[in-house]
Amino acid sequence: MTTTTPSTDTGIALTVRGLRKSYGDRAAVDGLDLVAEPGTVTGFLGPNGAGKSTTLRILTGLARADEGEALVGGVPYRELKDPARTIGVMLDARALHGGRTGLETLRLVARTVGMPATRADEVLALVGLDGAGSKRVGSYSYGMRQRLGIGVALVGDPSVLVLDEPANGLDPEGIRWMRRLLRSFADAGGTVLLSSHQLREVEATVDRLVVISHGRLVREGTLEELTAGEGTRVSALDPAALVTALDRHGIAHEDRGAGVLEVSLCPEDMGRLALREQLVLTSLGATAGGGLEEVFFHLTGGEEDAAEIAGISGPGGSALTGAAPSAPAGAPSAAMTTPSAASAAPSPAATR
Amino acid sequence: MRPDIDLRGALDTRAALILLPLSVLALAGFAALGGLIQPYAMEDGTSALDLTLAIMSLPLALIIPMLAVPIVAGEWSDSSIQNTFLQRPRRGAVLASKVLAATLVVLAVLAIAFGFAAAATWVGGDLLGEGATFFAEGNSLLGQLLALLGTLLFSLAAAMLLQSTVLGLVAAIGVPFVISTASSLAVVFGSDVLVDVLRSVDLMSAAVAVADGSAGAFELLPLLLLVLLPGLLGARRWSVREVG
Fold this sequence. Notes:
The structure holds two protein chains of two kinds. Chain A is of the alpha/beta class. Chain A has helices at 52-59, 83-86, 102-113, 118-126, 142-154, 172-187, 199-205, 223-227, 239-248, 267-276, 292-300, 306-312, 334-337; strands at residues 14-23, 26-36, 41-45, 67-72, 75-76, 87-90, 160-164, 191-196, 208-213, 216-222, 232-236, 253-257, 260-263, 281-286. In chain A, the strands form three sheets. A six-stranded mixed sheet of chain A has the order 6-7-8-3-9-10, with helices on both faces. In chain A, strands 2-1-4-5 form a four-stranded antiparallel sheet, covered by helices on one side. In chain A, a hairpin with a 2-residue loop joins strand 1 and strand 2. Chain B has one domain. Chain B has helices at 3-11, 14-41, 49-77, 81-87, 91-128, 140-162, 165-189, 192-199, 203-211, 220-240; strands at residues 47-48, 132-133. The A-B interface holds A 53, 57, 60-64, 77-78, 80, 83-84, 89, 91-92, 94-100, 104, 108-109, 111-113, 136, 138, 152, 156 and B 2, 4-5, 8-9, 12-16, 75, 78-83, 85-90, 240, 242-244.
């Protein structure tokens, strides 16, 4: 039976600790920490040039880190005995030989990773290319190449999937197919790390998010945590006194104009603070929860320092897990140690 | 090492499906040209295997790099090396496997070429002419085989070092041509220094010298400069080069 369920019952986590990689003077990855847990789809989000692809290439042994480590189940990729049976990777769908047919591509991979040749036919059907197996990859559309690339990743029946921009080039049906694929894979205990800059796609697919900018972790948490309300909008009869009170208590705030401040407190706490400080409030209310797009641009804004962003935007500070980008190499960030609701024990692997 | 994988990977592409039959056809054509026409061109009406092989060395000088370089370096050019390293992350083993696969393919083609040459020489000499000669005087046959081996080794070294099909082919085909042309010109101009410099990088001359027993330590220089040195540098680059 065709399957996408991970091959092992024991989950394999992906761990990146204190990763640094520079090209000349430019730091592509700068002290990055992240964990992708079994049973979850972890979105790896960041603008172009943020260091996502470099991180994934180091994680999969295609590049070497200057400092830190990237581990698959506690082991560097290059030291895995049979890597494709543990971790399926699709980084670049163009990296498939155009002169080979789709079926032959998968058969060659199956032979390489020690799977029976019939696995190639299974996977070809699984990725929806059974009608195009005899065509040469060079004649495939980009979306078909994406499917084949995902198929290559799945041939070894791995426990972990690492996919870089897998939705690129896929039509709506293909995107829905991919979502289902990743969801069922994670639900069966597999680990999925999904890099993307397509926010809508990420929003619809992932359980947890790791957002990086300039090679640094700026936010990590569940999708709900990251897109939860950003705080409270408040105005007072005496705006200056309100600002003074907030500053005295070390509460982050931003001026939204017309005397309105956005503060990093829930409305109830803001009300209590106003009572304690003898402030007359003229308006008070929770801000609408920002969508992922809003959060993303907020976090990765070019001129804003990532550390500041991580520090000020968490409501209450406990739900959101901002990590200080300047954390020393090797030191796990607070974000890393925060358990995710979605990382609960997965359901047993489905039968194949 | 998985040379079986690399052999299959090298032979199941469209390029291989075109190149291999064309190569065999070219070898058959040149074998016929050498073996069948010799009796009519030679005064004694015979056909000699070493002369047939000498004629076939022309297409082989192109065919050997065209087969060996893509097998070793082709995946770097089309980026499919990424998937290879993802499935087989021990890069040294991948390189050794590809070199072995390329060597096997070229040796198979050389065996076919030798078969064609022998058949054409026999047909031309014994059936059409006054007789066939399979064992030439001297060591010209050995010299030709060593020169072909040198072509293979230099092709492998160029592919390892340059890790690009196009650059590897240009180097593997162009450098011996440039060296042999420059050597001829150096002899014409009578520059001993230039002749010695070019001898130090002339694998073909070294092969002939080894075959006729006149080789000294100097004949190791081409092997060192054109095979071992680029091979070692290529192996080093192969192990550290980033992919993607």
